Amino acid sequence: MAASVDPLVVGRVIGDVLDMFIPTANMSVYFGPKHITNGCEIKPSTAVNPPKVNISGHSDELYTLVMTDPDAPSPSEPNMREWVHWIVVDIPGGTNPSRGKEILPYMEPRPPVGIHRYILVLFRQNSPVGLMVQQPPSRANFSTRMFAGHFDLGLPVATVYFNAQKEPASRRR
Amino acid sequence: MAISMSMAMATPTDSVSRVWSMSSLKSALPSTASLRLPSSSSRRPVTLRLPISSPSLPSFSGLSPVNPLLSIGLPDWQSFENGFKIVDGGGRIYAMRHGRRVPKLNRPPDQRKALLRGLTTQLLKHGRIKTTRARASAMRKFVDKMITLAKDGSLHKRRQALGYIYEKQIVHALFAEVPDRYGERNGGYTRIIRTLPRRGDNAPMAYIELV
């Protein structure tokens, strides 16, 4: 019996990756023509290029976007939780991540086994952090909570997640 | 022994004294009660009565509703409310599905078992699978059963798991990691998340994942 109907709680995004937060900003994510809703299924072939993300807010506010996969390498054995795919900081409000500073270049989802969740988290920055942030040593074993705590980003302001699984090599007849 | 045979045929309720006792009840049973009669007969002189009226012996008497008090414990026992249904093996058959909790999944029993075995194998292998809601809710029981077997960890349980899961490596991996992962959790090792229906036939789909 679901204790909550919030899709982020049901999908255990809040819990595995994030803490409970109140969304204060709007973020709409598009992979090509497809709009991302919580829990929708995306094929890795459509996610090769970074998505178009529209962030609400004033242009004097700065935002940070992080995309992680908590189910790496497999949801039954997430040894490398989380695998970070993309980090962009200093995004001015009301624009998209191309106007920010890309700390970690975008890597497309490549789930080897099982169905993985890919979470896009948006934080509001209190101050520009462009110079302090460095690329994490490896993409594996990333912790979004620790990243937010390290740069004093606080709780997220918006989150969306989607599922992806490995596409079959040959088309099903 | 003639006395024990006759006492086996005595009916408890058509005595004048209306003595209900366990020994008199047992004496009405057809077979095994005769072993206990030596002890009970010493306590209750009533059971030593020879039968006077025996045509109300509760044997099969067609489809007429038999007095339920006379037929307790016999294989032809019919329920109070519908005395006209045919009963076999002690199970009741009703026209409606009331109280039947086994999901049939539109398959005969052998196929159903094979489907559930395959689904639990794949869930234990991949950690999260997408399937129809009926199948997801049907397989919860069997996934929990496999994880409980792994929690126990003995050789017998391992062999039982090997008899159910289709792939050996999955069983061995399961037995290796379950004590760490599910040691404190009591039951409820899966989670079902409903999702959008399937395009081809609008079947309601769900993700089922290991918690």
UniProtKB/TrEMBL annotation, chain B:
One of its GO terms (molecular function) is structural constituent of ribosome. GO terms for cellular component: cytosolic large ribosomal subunit. GO terms for biological process: translation. InterPro entries: Ribosomal_bL17 (IPR000456). It comes from the Eukaryota. This is Large ribosomal subunit protein bL17c. It comes from Arabidopsis thaliana x Arabidopsis arenosa. Keywords: Ribonucleoprotein, Ribosomal protein. Belongs to the bacterial ribosomal protein bL17 family. The keyword Ribonucleoprotein applies. The keyword Metal-binding does not apply.
